[in-house]
Amino acid sequence: LSHPECYGGLVFTSPRALEAIKICLKENSKKEAWSKSLQQMWNIKPTYVVGKATASLVEEIGLTPQGEKCGNAEKLAEYICSREKPNSSALLFPCGALKREVLPTVLREKGIPLESLTVYQTTQHPDLQESLSSYFSQQGIPASIVFFSPSGVKFCLQHIQKLSGDVINHVKFAAIGPTTAEALEAAGIPVSCTAGSPTPQDLAVGIHKALHPQNC
Question: Looking at its record, which EC class is this enzyme (predicted)?
């Protein structure tokens, strides 16, 4: 972050990456350097983002997001390729350890340099199994279950399957986007709905349709 002159811009595909950036900027010396010069230097370069949540966090650190309506990595990659020239300065991509290779692959094929930097790791919450067991014992088996990431599928699904038993066939499974839907399908779970774009409104519409197919 201290060397904007080395890069052509920034790419963010998750709110967690911005949380890592905020931790970096908390130190007084870095905070001062950011507000005095670095923020301005980065702002003359593009900051590409996926989704509104990531865009709003980019705005919080004083940068101007682009591409928030893309909604997924595939569309964002196309958006970036339409705006960047091959063999220009690399885009800095702070990301998670479990990032997908879609965006880096598309940009590489188009000759657009991308420097990926792992800034966070996704791990299972220590109370996950206990929390799920508690929910199922108190509330029963839900009518629908929504997943927001492939990691959620990886960490939660096995517990949900055990807790639901044969009744799992009656649960409507929803996904925030195509990547999460693919993870569910790969695990043998039929997906009743995928949000048209990763927003609460679109997800709610999809779940409503799945639960009330005839609007009855």
Answer: lyase
Question: Do 36 and 79 form a contact (C-beta atoms < 8 A)?
Answer: no
Name the nearest CA neighbour of 93 among 75, 71, 110, 76. Answer: 76
Distance CA 99, CA 122 (A): 10
Residues 79, 135 share a domain: no
Could you count the other beta carbons within 10 Å of the beta carbon of residue 177?
24
**With b meaning 16 or more CB within 10 Å and e meaning fewer, what string describes 99-120?**
beeebbebbeeeebebebeebb
Q: Residue 201 is encoded by which pair of tokens?
A: 């409104």
In a domain, 216, yes or no: no
Domain that holds residue 175: 127-211
User: Which residue among 120, 137, 166 closes a domain?
Assistant: 120
Q: Could you read off the pLDDT of 76-132 as tens digits, one per residue?
A: 999 999 999 998 999 999 999 877 788 999 999 999 999 999 999 988 899 999 999
Sole residue written with tokens 């595939």: 74
